[in-house]
Amino acid sequence: MPLVTTTEMFKKAYEGGYAVGAFNVNNMEIVQGITEAASELNAPVILQVSAGARKYAKHVYLVKLVEAAIADCPDIPIALHLDHGADFEICKSCIDGGFTSVMIDGSSRPFEENIAETRKVVEYAHDHGVVVEAELGKLAGIEDAVNVSEADAQFTNPAEVEEFVTRTGVDSLAIAIGTSHGAYKFKPGQKPQLRFDILEEVGRRLPQFPIVLHGASSVPQDLVKVINHFGGQMPDAIGIPEEMLRKASTMAVCKINIDSDVRVAMTAAIRKHMAENPSHFDPRQYLTPARTAVKEMVAHKIKDVLGCAGKA
Description:
- This protein is an alpha/beta fold and 312 residues long.
- It has twelve helices and ten strands.
- The protein has helices spanning 7-16, 28-40, 51-57, 59-72, 88-96, 111-127, 158-168, 196-205, 221-229, 242-249, 260-276, 283-306; strands at 20-24, 45-49, 78-85, 101-104, 131-136, 141-143, 146-148, 172-175, 211-213, 253-258.
- The strands form two sheets. An eight-stranded parallel β-barrel has the order 1-2-3-4-5-8-9-10, surrounded by ten helices.
- Pathway: Carbohydrate degradation; glycolysis; D-glyceraldehyde 3-phosphate and glycerone phosphate from D-glucose: step 4/4.
- Belongs to the class II fructose-bisphosphate aldolase family.
- It catalyses: beta-D-fructose 1,6-bisphosphate = D-glyceraldehyde 3-phosphate + dihydroxyacetone phosphate.
């Protein structure tokens, strides 16, 4: 099966009351862990690439790794998505370079500028058979090139979504309802909350339209403890409770982005292995359990959070 767009994935997800996982990829072991889990569970999956990943691994390496995953896991639908494209030129580069989906993130711009830039990307993408995600509202947090302070974060205004979608022609919309980027989403003692009232109103205003949640890692505390036990320093790392994500996936949310959880799982496995095997210096020795940790994390998300197992 060749790379696909997210159109059919999202249609099935909306109708079925589940969400498709969009997992950030940076290297071979992460790609393998994600796609092997999805293949074994017969689940659709989105592999997404950030600006930081393109800088680290280079565009061509990432595309070729995804092509290898398609050959290795031919029976599941896989989409290749640009995460947080900063402008038209970056989106165009990825569209021309084989991506089947791109996100243009104009959320930091005034409303009219966001519309104009998004519309420009949509026109080019649709002419090339590629789908587009955009964003309204601003998520707090830090992840790769995305850095938004709590003071600058803004919930999505439901009153703007119909105009934005109509004028841009965008295929899916990322909204801000309380999730945030990175592994430190809430302050110690702060109760995690999502604005389901905003999500419900957006769904009412945009019936059957796919909504996206960014910054949706849960930052498992058992893995944080492993990292800290073996020399790491991740105090006060807190994520989104998984039951909240499951609820969102039964509503209008068709795509849930997960990055930090993959990083945490991989780092915990590597730290543990290196501490318990101080003589090891072959990267294959510690990257093998790291890849397994990624696979186990993704399998858990597919089965227990996203609800998309068996939906390929």
